[in-house]
Amino acid sequence: MKTSLWIASSLVIELVVLGCGGTSSSSDGGSDGCTYKSQCSAPNGNEIHWIALPAGNFEMGCSPDDSNCNDSEKPVHTVNVPAFEMSETPITQAQYEAQLGTNPSNFSSCANCPVETVKWHEAKAFCEAVSARLPTEAEWEYAARAGSLTPYYSGNDPSCLDEIAWHGGNSSSQTHPVAEKLGNDYCLFDMVGNVWEWVDDCWHDDYIGSPTDGTAWLDGACTYRVLRGGSYGAGPVTMRTSNRDGDYPDMYFISYPTGPGFRCARDIN
Questions:
Q1: Residue among 116, 106, 112 nearest 94 (CA)
Q2: What is the value of pTM for the model shown?
């Protein structure tokens, strides 16, 4: 456990349900071990675009042959995830301010950058305001992996990250507009890098006793909430799909000086 706007508030957020914006293709990158995902259409405008994810099961936790895993990513366990929808990108500053009338971001001059420095309760309140919720940790990893088994959803090698994420090696120490990097096979953008993302779950030091049905793990003291995905300042080990961390819901030690962002999810009835 680590302890480490300029748009008018009258902007109306239109909620649009989308599938992938184009066909998703993958190709073996060759000896570098990269599998590049491409041809997902980047979203336009300030509305929230929703991606429908199919029901399925996956192995949650440490990827096969990943020597960088820590105990919090174990034991690997099968999770059955019901169908749900997830916002195509992290919630942007424009979307956040349009709904709540404020922008807490450190890098506040970029309306299409992820909103950041958001407390867990604020993220939860936003998602509820748009008739959604925070994703569970299992939903987040299921969505990020998009069927991949490798440490990065773009492949095995850290060099693969440049295609999919803003991280400590390419971000110039700042956030960037969403969807400038390639989406994954579900056409979700910025699932790693740019900003840490809050999920609904309470922090636990490992996966012993965790739910296997895709629901949030909410028992215990819940002193910390889970963060996933790394950020613009993160290195390759932190950017692995299985990597997880946690922080106080109202503080930002692990991502200081820029606090977390988030995306939203909603059930499919």
A1: 112
A2: 0.89
**pLDDT, tens only, 226-237:** 999 999 999 999
Alpha carbon dihedral 64, 66, 67, 70, in 10-degree steps, equals -90
In 3-state terms, what secondary structure has residue 124?
helix
Domain that holds residue 110: 1-269
Q: DSSP secondary structure string, 236-253?
A: TTTTSTT-EEEE-TT--T
In this structure, are strands 56-60 and 77-81 parallel, antiparallel, or unpaired? antiparallel
Model confidence pLDDT, tens digit, residues 94-106: 999 999 999 999 9
How many structural domains comprise the chain?
Answer: 1
Task: Give the CATH number of the domain where residue 226 resides.
Answer: 3.90.1580.10
Q: In this structure, are residues 194 and 114 in contact, taking their beta carbons and an 8 Å threshold?
A: yes
Amino acid letter, 79 = V
